[in-house]
Design a protein that fits this description.
single chain; mainly alpha; Tetracycline Repressor, domain 2; globular
């Protein structure tokens, strides 16, 4: 046979790529036990094992591999050949299995960003559309079907993002809380804590007057019975109140942190009541400039009373 070193016990010492391919093909027939009809995956594995055997630097007797027929011939070979054949077979199969798993994981990782991106895009579109609806027509106008039609998705798609419509409302109200917090942040640091509290109250009033429907939705929405607000929403509420806690801490140095937190909420409730009644056209509406002055007077009086109580 061309390309084979002959001798008493010729060894596989391939001289070129073509020779190696021919020998590997014949070896594959031995490993396949002479069966021509085999599963493509198994045939591919056997071919790879055959190539490894051909390239084995230890060498294998030609007559032992090519002289016999079927897997029985392979079993008659020396223990080294059988051991190497089984070893190569196991390694190739394990490598192929690992490769399949890795390929599947890579496909999933490639698809995951696109899936997440579509999920986030739909979520943002739903919140944006709900926000526009509430700002234009109030919370009562928000309905699932019109919302889906505006976004261009099915009603069912909404519930792949949110568990129910309440989740959409909380997302919009979360944005509103964040917007109120930003308005309070713009006040910056004011050395006089009383003046600082007054300016925070005015910032709250100005936001409420400029975005009445969104602001009103914060208080019109109530959680379903037995449900509480999510942790992320509670954190946004806390962040808004924290703007009030800072000047209160300077005004009332004797207050422990828990008491200061409670007082900040009470002061916010007082200001909110004045704002809500002052902006309500049906009850006790008053012009914005008068409402601004009244809030300044009330907050100043409260702050001075707190300062006088310091011990």
């Amino acid at each position: 046979m061309p390309g084979i070193e002959r001798g008493a016990s010729p060894r596989l010492q391939p001289r070129d790529a073509r020779c190696r391919r021919l020998r590997a093909a014949r070896l594959q027939g031995v490993l396949g036990n002479g069966h021509r009809q085999r599963a493509p995956g198994k045939a591919k594995t056997e071919l790879r094992v055959a190539h490894l055997l051909v390239e084995d630097q230890q060498g294998v007797a030609i007559r032992e591999i090519l002289g016999g027929r079927g897997r029985g011939a392979a079993k008659q070979c020396d223990g080294g050949l059988e051991h190497r054949t089984l070893s190569y077979m196991n390694n190739v199969q394990t490598t192929e299995a690992a490769g399949m798993v890795q390929e599947k994981c890579e496909r999933r990782s490639r698809n995951r960003p696109a899936t997440i991106s579509r999920h986030e895009a739909l979520q943002a579109a739903l919140i944006d559309a709900a926000e526009r609806t509430i700002a234009a027509d109030g919370l009562a106008a928000l309905r699932a079907r019109p919302l889906a039609e505006e976004v261009g998705c099915s009603v069912g798609a909404i519930y792949t993002i949110f568990s129910d419509l309440e989740g959409v409302i909380l997302a919009v109200n979360g944005r509103t809380l964040a917007a109120i917090s930003r308005e309070m942040t713009k006040v910056g640091f004011v050395p006089d804590p009383t003046e600082h509290l007054v300016k925070l109250a005015w910032a709250y009033l100005n936001y409420a007057a400029g975005a009445r429907a969104r602001w009103a939705a914060l208080f019109q929405h109530t959680m379903a019975e037995g449900r509480t607000v999510p942790d992320w929403y509670a954190r946004q509420q806390t962040a808004a109140f924290s703007h009030i806690e800072e000047p209160l801490g300077r005004l009332c140095l004797h207050l422990a942190p828990p008491a200061r937190v409670l007082l900040a909420r009470s002061l916010f409730s007082a200001v909110h009541g004045i704002v809500a009644l002052g902006l309500d056209e049906k009850v006790a509406s008053m012009p914005l400039h008068i409402l601004t002055d009244q809030i300044g007077i009330i907050v100043t009086a409260i702050a001075r009373g707190l300062a006088a109580c310091r011990t």
